[in-house]
Amino acid sequence: MRSVVVKTLFAGMLATGLSACETMNMPDLTMPDFSMPDVFTSTPAQTVTLDEGYQFTLPEQPWTDDDAIDVTQQVTAGWKNGSSTETGTFQARLSLERDHVRIVMIDDLGRRAIDIDWTTDALSVQTADWLPATLDAKRMLADIIMVYWPLDVVRDALPGNMSIRETMGERMLRMDDSGRAYARIERPIRDVWQGVAKLRNERFGYAITIRSQRTGS
């Protein structure tokens, strides 16, 4: 189970040799002019499997704040592959408006890899055909929500057998059935969308560092 989840998260995008960039580019939020297969398009109340018996329910309202958010992010991930540790990076752009979230991820060549368009009516995820089918974009979305969405939204999205505790600059998610930590999250204190956030998944042993920079509305 461990290897399956880690591969699901990173094998596609990160094992393709993505290299760190000195500056963050601005991924284009317009729809791509090349064909990308539709992974799913459906009504709200989507669920994401965090572990066997643990289902994360995406909120019906993608974003509830009236203030629009527009950021670019450079994401560095690390995970164990057997006895070695592997790392990879990619870039993303997030645009959040009330009841509408757009997320675009690109590789180091500027190629569109993932496009998420999420409204109160539907959740559409498109992935480039050069990405393997093991890449789970919904799990990536769940991690993003855990890091950046308001505490009450994350708490409502968690299954009944998981809990979250927040202190200044840190969140802890715990599996109540076993008492084990599931994930530890560090977030910028003053402005969560400006600076470095870190997520370490204690259950499956991967870590993500996200460097965010506001770009304005």
UniProtKB/TrEMBL annotation:
Signal peptide per UniProt: 1-20
Pfam families on file: DUF3261 (PF11659)
Alphabetical list of InterPro entries matching this protein: DUF3261
PROSITE patterns in the record: PROKAR_LIPOPROTEIN
Keywords of the record: Signal
Protein name (database record): Lipoprotein
Protein source organism: Thalassospira xianhensis MCCC 1A02616
Lineage: Bacteria, Pseudomonadati, Pseudomonadota, Alphaproteobacteria, Rhodospirillales
